[in-house]
What does this fold into?
Amino acid sequence: MKGDTRGQVSIFIIVAIAIVAVGVLLFMFYPEIGSNFGLESKNPSEFIQDCIKDEVESNVNRLSHQGGSLEPEHYFVYNSEKLEYLCYTNEYYKTCVVQQPMLKRHIEREVEEAIEETVDECFVDLEESFQKKGYEVNLRRGAFSVELLPKRIAVSFDDSLTLTKETSEKFDSISVMVNNNLYELVSIANSIISWETSYGDAETTTYMNYYHDLGVQKKLQSDGTTVYVLTDLNNGNKFQFASRSVAWPPGYGVESVLG
It folds into this structure.
């Protein structure tokens, strides 16, 4: 019996050593093994997504806090931030004029310009990364575009990428998706601007009654400017901007007129 027990213990030790040895080999050679069996850790879209995501989010956040412009030219300073006037008149008693009639497209172009340098760097890194994995890389660069979509931001590339190692695989539609509801907030901002141009004011409770996850703050300033702050209560995303419409001269506000 003792001999049988010793034999079983010896077998267990040998098996344990074998398992450890296999584990070490897998750890050392997994990249090559994965490559040979087509188990690449990333495809091109995932690589570019990881590379540009932070840059997209950073610029979108800045745009959202400044009324849709990275470098506002006509703005109101609120809480140390420059808020672009999306509707403005310098006259009293007059309704404002829209300053960014294509607000959504304006924001998309701002993002495109802001991330262009990072995009170029990411595609250089992409090419080098796959070359290090033993691929022959044929990359033809094209234009790219940014689009605000419901609940997300899409970055689409017209680049053509062919990866060759034993066989070839071609990628003609590299794209990146970033979760963000700026599309919805901009749509509501456009609706508020429409009220400002027509009536010089907007009834914000209407929006909150309809969109229960939306917070809308309307902050009147001493010079007749109104600051609007739109906030998604689920994730804290916000879009804020300024408007000046049907402003009253100092000392002649609505309270004065009504006595």
